[in-house]
Amino acid sequence: MSEENRGALDGAASETSVSDLIRIRREKLAALTEAGENPYLKVRYDFDAYSSDVLNNFDEYEGKNVRMAGRIMSRRDMGKANFIHVQDGKGTIQCYIRINDIGEEKFAAYKKWDIGDIIGFSGEVFRTHKGEISIHVLEIELLSKSLLPLPEKFHGLRDTDMKYRQRYLDLIMNADVKDTFVKRSRIISYIREYLDSKGFLEVDTPILTTHELGAAARPFRTHHNTLDIDMVLRIETELYLKRLIVGGMDRVYEMGRIFRNEGMDPRHNPEFTTVELYQAYTDYKGMMEIVEELYPFLAEKVCGSSRVSYNGHEIDLSHFERLTMAEAVKKYSGIDYYDWKSDEDAVSAAREAGVEIPDGAAKGSVLAELFDAFVEDKLIQPTIIYDYPVENSPLAKRKASDPNFVERFEYFICASEMGNAFSELNDPIDQRGRFERQVAEKLREDPTSTARVDEDFITALEYGMPPTGGLGFGVDRLVMLLTDSASIRDVLLFPTMKPVE
After folding, report:
1. CA distance 143 to 44
2. DSSP string for residues in 355-401
3. Per-chain mean pLDDT for the chain
4. Which of 8, 12, 210, 488 could cross-link 149 (Cys pair, CB 3.0–4.6 Å)?
5. Which residues touch 319 (CB under 8 Å, ≥6 apart)?
6. How far, in Å, are 68, 70, 427, 428 from residue 433 at the CA level?
7. How far is it, in rounded angstroms, from Cα 28 to Cα 36?
8. What pLDDT, on the 0 to 100 scale, is given for residue 449?
9. Tally of CB atoms within 10 A around 470
10. pLDDT per residue as tens digits for the range 72-93
């Protein structure tokens, strides 16, 4: 191994030695350019096989010539013969290179190439004496020069911050990271497949809007120069999708980016991907059925089983328990909502259980507080919690049988909320009143808010919206679940990061 390549794998290399390695690589590039062999002028290299094709179908490929391309990841120098490992878009394969096969001039040029360089090669598929499937290289060329040494081979990127900032390097060094993002792409594809098969139509709605819509979240603000108006990045897709239900598009969904100018933690990023779907002539029970079908479908497609491992737990996605919020609180705390005769009874019961509740709190608010205190962290296996108190779900449709509750559910896996659904409010008079109260509250909290009643949406409801079920869930949290990833940053190719000074 050359000193340059040995240094590229040396995790203890000093800043000075790294600088020397970079200088050496740039000198090699200059020499190539001066000789009329600038690798950056290469514009195309046709290949006919990936490493995974050969490794998974050796009997089919043995003895045949293949043409491949990829990045040099290691080199074992044996004088007039070398073994290298080349990483392509689907894996890594060993190559055997001899001076007698490619010629003295090409071999001498090849010996100056570095770990990280991108090459094209062709040769015969065979198995070594040690049993490793390999390519006996007969032709080889340099396609692109790597001017920076890769991280140390066996420890990879140990700086977590650097992994997120330089995702391209993380993908080069860590095959499992690449697998996560391949799965993410497949999950998105299968979500579409499922919804399309159910007759839903995928649509696009505006990302830039003139005022804050629907959800109670702080938006990112911007300015449209031509129109000379302030605008915000959307914090939800709900109200535009419901307009389409009014217009007769009975089943619609949108998968897209949402932007919320709020906190960051392992489960929250300022921009994230959601799916929102709406179906006419159904209710929140219809949305439950979709959740209970979709999750095992995705797990089977992506993981090969409806049982997945997440956060140290084996999760069975083929079964969702259904509990009302009142039932769940009684199950895990022993406190029965229906024993309370008044708001005061509710406050007293919560305080006796050790939960601090302010004076004057309504029964519904107390129930929600007890849920947070006693229930949520127990919901490891898939659980649908439905019938929320009206106090903490002001925009949902009330239950006809009990106006103290609304037709809403959230579902939880591994003690984390994964999605939210409603029987959608379609009463324009009620909707206006709720919007007015919501806008007033936002303006009290933030006088600079652009929140206002969405008059056009009210107009749409006045033309008549059929009974409708709506569901929204985060794609990123779903990917975390199906890839057993601890942080949302692990499933976003380029998570939001504070700039390096």
Report:
1. 9
2. ----TT--HHHHHHHHHHHHTGGG--S-EEEEEEEGGG-TTBPBPSS
3. 92
4. 8
5. 381, 382
6. 65, 62, 10, 9
7. 13
8. 76
9. 24
10. 999 999 999 999 999 999 999 9
